[in-house]
Amino acid sequence: MIILTFRPVHGESPVNVRGAYFRICADATLRGPDNAIAASYCKGLWQLGRRQHRSFECSGPLYLRVMLSQGRHERTGPYDFVKAIEGALFTHSGYLGAYALQPEIAGSVELWREVAFLPAG
Fold this sequence. Notes:
six-stranded antiparallel β-barrel; 3% helix; globular
């Protein structure tokens, strides 16, 4: 089971979303196992319901399966912690990759077309 903890922009409480797996899709949506949209990413923020969140994180162990721009898949991990913020993914020790970036930065970085968060087991 994957638990994503969304961190709100305003002083509200964090929101937990649970699922067998999640994936960030090329259309800037976060989808769960039933392919329903759990959240949408726009202008640096995650829209979850009616609230905006600056980031989400999850604790592992978990793996990432990323689709590179050429359509090739790559599996990485396991990770004990992953945070999604400002269009990129990070662990406690550093940068993993980007799924969306501001246009002025995007030209110099390969964007992942899809990122799946998978349980380690």
